[in-house]
Amino acid sequence: MIEVQNIVHQENQLKDDNTIPFPIEKMDISWMTPTQKKFYEVLSKDENKKLKYEDISTLAGYKSTTSWYKAIKDKRFVKLLEIIGVQAKLQNDHYPPHSEVEYIKDPKEREEYIKNDIWDMRKLYMNYPRHRNASIYIADFRLIKNHNIRLQVKRYFKNQLSSWGPRSFNDKLNRYAPFFDVMYDLFPMITSLSQLEREQHIEPILNSLTCSKKQKKATIRAIKTMFEYMYHHKWIDAPSIGLLTKYDTPKVEETLPRPIPPEIKIQLDDYLESTIIPLLEEGVSTPILKPVYWDLLIVIRYTGRRFEDIAHLIAEHKDKSMECLQYDLDGDPQLYLDHRIAKIPKDLRIPISHLKDSNGRNMVERAILRQKERVKNLCSAPDGFYYLFREAKVENRGSGSRPILNSKGENIVECIQHKFINEIILVKISEQIPLKNLDGSLYKISTHQFRHTVATEMIDAGIDIYAVKEFLGHSSIAMTEKYIKVYNQKIKKEFNEKLSRSDATLIKENLKEEKALYDNTWVKNKIFAVFEQGDGCCEHLYKMPACPHMSCKTCIKKKIYPRHLQSVKDTIESFTIHRDNALKLGLTEKAEDFDKVVKFHTIALEIINRGEVFEASKHFH
Questions:
Q1: CA distance to 79, 89, 136, 419, per residue, from 133 (Å)
Q2: What is the three-class DSSP state of 495?
């Protein structure tokens, strides 16, 4: 290891231009992590020392600066870089990890704490999403340069502690920053928001905003809301009403969901089912990623949940109704989402019984059970919850890895981080499967695209939009309708492509482009949906009312193909058990319903065993 005296001596040499620095090739770097060694090798060359961090990371073989910022958290490494002439600065001030932050319970202590210009919201909120980095919970009021205005904003934020979530404070401050920066530059002598006037101040500020339209819209809306709050609550120093209006916000093109393209989805799904899932079932090592990350990927791919929902699934709890894997009265698996951390504060139970592979195994249920087994002996996260996807923190510096311990000598355990999955894990699978576009280039997936993909698949299958809304947990139908727009675009694109390959040039030339994407009448009236159910297909018109048949199990529009063989056998076995149990409990009518399903699928089994297609309208009804 490099001795402290040598470092000081080498540093003093660098201050004197006439002194030859300590030879770089003789530096002892055995204590560095593999990542640090890569960066050191790049920065040992003079032509690389003035490069941006993004370029340094690229030369070291990394897609982002995440590894760079992790490497320079080590003071020894930073000191050594300074010796060879490289200045390394952290992206933000160093904020403690979640495990080291204590919630402030005492009211007097909280009151004293919020007098500071920097708030760590983790100290003010007992529950917060643990899959995000510490910096997202830091509200730094120093972003507002005008001291008097800063005090007014801090008062407003203090009043929102009971209304906003812990992530909102950092987000709001970043929205306010462009407005108050311009205001300070143009009118530095203003001491209160009550001094602002529309023509004299607001209009010049708006005209001087140089941020993007999207940022400008978010900034104006946030400032307008704050001004109106101050006015309606009769603050002495409140701004007057009407300083900002809805006409000040620029029009921004709506961003539609971005599902994974079909050609990429096929590559990923095929790799999961043909290569990864068999290895996971055997309990052996897997290529590219550790098994835990493949199981996380399976859960998020097929359930369409937000990453924060997956990161906070509860594996074990004294109240069994809180655990993520549950079963309904029919014995079918469900995914339970706890509302504490969710974006939409609402408990959800998501059916997952249809998510089976070609061998009839429920992919998501099996993934959860495997992960529960992996973490059964792992202690809880610092907030006391036994999250399904949690892991012990380890130190990778030097030879081998060792667990990171807290002040009590216990392993620090946290849920898996979003940034790690998005920037490391998904990049790996894109590069190493690999996932390629039609032109041969690599396609990079983000975690939220899985949600867009599942929603689009449901719309494609003809599932009622209100059912999709409930499945996704949207707070309003307007959010779900965006997927209808994506579907409309897809259908029109495919229709136009087919026309371009046909001789119907006259039709093509006279085909009017759809002007209102929100109008899905064309799709509803013209397109028949084929809903894949696992043990068959239902061919009802798009957006049918509630199906009169028992979960579509005996639907008159149902068709069952030979490929559904295993699922049909599973259905017969499952509903035979339900029928027998119902009879034991004296539930005669329920038993008759179950028996009808058994008879329906028994007939279907005989027909598909002959290699033929079972049609309910022809063979049963």
A1: 25, 18, 6, 8
A2: helix
DSSP letter, residue 282? H
Q: Are strands 390-392 and 394-395 parallel, antiparallel or unpaired?
A: unpaired
Amino acid residing at 273: E
CA distances from 55 to 21, 37, 119, 323 (A): 26, 16, 33, 45
Q: Which of 233, 155, 146 is nearest to 196 (CA)?
A: 146
Residues 6+ apart with CB under 8 A from 440: none
Alpha helix (H) residue ranges in 60-143? 66-71, 75-83, 107-113
**pLDDT per residue as tens digits for the range 176-215:** 999 999 999 999 999 999 999 999 999 999 999 988 888 9
Which contacts qualify for 540-549: CB closer than 8 Å, 24 or more apart? Answer: 540/462, 541/462, 542/462, 543/462, 543/464, 543/465, 544/462, 544/464
SS3 sequence, 308-369? Answer: HHHHCCEEECCCHHHCCEEECCCCCEEEEECCCCCCCCCCEEEECCCCECCCCCEHHHHHHH
pLDDT digit string (tens) for 471-486?
A: 777 777 777 777 666 6
Summary mean pLDDT of the chain:
81
Cβ neighbours, 10 Å, residue 602 = 13
Determine what percent of the chain is predicted with pLDDT higher than 90: 37
* Residue 609 DSSP SS3: coil
Rounded distance, CA 211 to CA 175, Å? Answer: 11
Separation CA 521–CA 514 (nearest Å): 11
Name the burial class of residue 237, with classes exposed (0-12), middle (13-18) and buried (19+) by CB atoms within 10 angstroms of its CB.
middle
Sign of CA dihedral 252, 258, 263, 264: positive
d(CA 51, CA 46): 10
Q: In angstroms, how far is the first alpha carbon of the chain from the final one? A: 81
- Which pLDDT belongs to residue 544? 40
pTM for the structure as a whole: 0.65
Average pLDDT over residues 1-8: 39
Closest CA to 601 of 578, 581, 573: 573
Report phi then psi at 77, rounded to 5.
-65, -40
Residues 366, 370, 376, 378, CA torsion sign: negative
Distance CA 250, CA 213 (A): 6
Question: Could you read off the pLDDT of 486-529 as tens digits, one per residue?
Answer: 655 655 565 555 545 544 444 445 545 444 444 444 343 333 34
Length of the chain counted residue by residue: 621
Contacts for 407-413 with beta carbons within 8 Å, 24 or more apart? 410/379, 411/378, 411/379, 412/97, 412/99, 412/382, 413/378, 413/379, 413/380, 413/381, 413/382
Query: How far is Cα of residue 229 from the mean position of the Cα atoms in its chain?
Result: 32
Q: By the 8 A CB rule, do 141 and 173 touch?
A: yes
